[in-house]
Design brief:
about 270 residues, mainly beta, Jelly Rolls, seven-stranded antiparallel β-sheet, globular, binds ligand LJL3ZJ5K, 5-deoxy-glucuronate isomerase, RmlC-like_jellyroll, 5-deoxy-D-glucuronate isomerase activity, glucuronate isomerase activity, isomerase
Length: about 270
C-alpha cells in the first residue's frame, strides 16, 4: 500500500456514528492538517471538544444540525450526493470549542482540522455564499467550490476547497506544489485529498512527487480514498467515462495559497483554447 494512500474504514464510534477516515494524531506524517470523515445515521449525534485546533465541518451529503458553543445551525446540507455538483453548507468552529453534529438524515460529514491560534467566532459558511469558479482549458478543465479560501478571513490556518474534474481531464495540473515557506514566491501548505468517483467503481491516478524524486508515488485512487500530500507536486488524472470529486484541506505556517508550477509542464498554460 502506498504510504500516502489511506483506504476507508468502518469503525463504529457510538450508536449510529461510524468513522470512515481519521487522519490525525499518530496516524499521519502531516503536522498541520488533520482530517476525518464521519457517517451519522438519522438522529445520531457526534460531538467533540477541540483543543488547539480549529475545525471546518463540511456537510458532504445529507442534512445535519450543528451546534458550536452557544450557536446552533439548523438543517445544513444541500445534496444527497456530492455529484449533484451544488455547493454545500459548512461551519467554521474555533479552537477550544465544544461542538455537536446531529444527523437530520443519514449524513456524511468531513471534519477538517488545522492549528488554531486565536479564539474566533464560529461561523456558518452557507452554500449560497460559496465562490464557484471554472479553471483550465482543453483536457485540463475543472470546477471549484471555494469553501474556505484564503480570501475569507475566518480561520487561523484552514483552507478548504472541493473540486470536480470531468471524464478524461486532469486537475491539480499542470503539476503544482506548495511545500516551501517562501512567500511571495510559494507558501508551505500540507494537503489532504478526499476522493469520490462517479460511478463509484471508478478510480483516478494521482502522482505525488518532488523535484529530486526523493518522494515519487503514483497511486490508483478509488472511491472514498484519502491521499496525503506532505510535499511535492500532486496532479490527478481522470479516466474516460468517470467524474472525479475531491475535497482538499490545506494548512501550514501561513494561511496563503501560493503554489509553484513544475517548470517542465508549465508550458501547457501557454496554449490557446480550441
Ligand atoms: O493546491 C490545491 C489543490 O491541488 C487543488 O485544489 C487544485 O488547486 C485544484 C485545481 O486547481 O485543479
Amino acid at each position: 500500500m502506498p504510504k500516502l494512500l489511506r483506504k476507508p474504514e468502518k469503525k463504529p464510534l457510538s450508536k449510529g456514528v461510524t468513522l470512515i477516515h481519521e487522519v490525525k494524531d499518530g496516524r499521519t506524517p502531516l503536522e498541520y492538517v488533520g482530517f476525518s470523515i464521519v457517517d451519522l445515521d438519522k438522529g445520531a449525534v457526534f460531538e467533540e471538544t477541540l483543543t488547539n485546533q480549529e475545525c471546518c465541518a463540511v456537510i458532504l451529503t445529507g442534512k445535519a444540525t450543528v451546534t458550536a458553543g452557544e450557536q446552533t445551525f439548523q438543517s445544513l446540507g444541500t445534496r444527497k450526493s456530492v455529484f449533484e455538483k451544488v455547493p454545500t453548507d459548512s461551519v467554521y468552529i474555533t479552537k477550544e470549542e465544544k461542538y455537536r453534529i446531529k444527523g437530520e438524515t443519514d449524513t456524511r460529514v468531513a471534519l477538517c482540522y488545522a492549528p488554531g491560534m486565536t479564539k474566533r467566532p464560529n461561523r456558518l459558511l452557507p452554500a449560497k455564499d460559496i465562490l464557484q469558479e471554472h479553471r483550465g482549458i482543453k483536457m485540463n478543465q475543472r470546477s471549484v467550490h471555494n469553501i474556505l479560501p484564503d480570501s475569507l478571513d475566518v480561520a487561523d490556518s484552514l483552507l478548504v476547497v472541493e473540486v470536480y474534474t470531468e471524464s478524461g481531464n486532469f486537475s491539480s495540473y499542470p503539476p503544482h506544489k506548495h511545500d516551501q515557506d517562501n512567500l511571495p514566491h510559494e507558501s508551505f501548505l500540507e494537503e489532504t485529498y478526499y476522493h469520490e468517483q462517479d460511478p463509484p467503481q471508478g478510480f483516478v491516478f494521482q502522482r505525488v512527487y518532488t523535484d529530486d524524486r526523493s518522494l515519487d508515488e503514483t497511486m490508483t485512487v478509488e472511491n472514498e480514498d484519502v491521499v496525503l500530500v506532505p510535499a511535492g507536486y500532486h496532479p490527478v488524472g481522470v479516466p474516460d467515462g468517470y467524474t472525479s470529486y475531491y475535497l482538499n484541506v490545506m494548512a501550514g505556517p501561513k494561511r496563503t495559497w501560493k503554489f509553484y508550477n513544475d517548470p517542465a509542464h508549465e508550458w501547457i498554460l501557454d496554449r490557446e483554447d480550441s
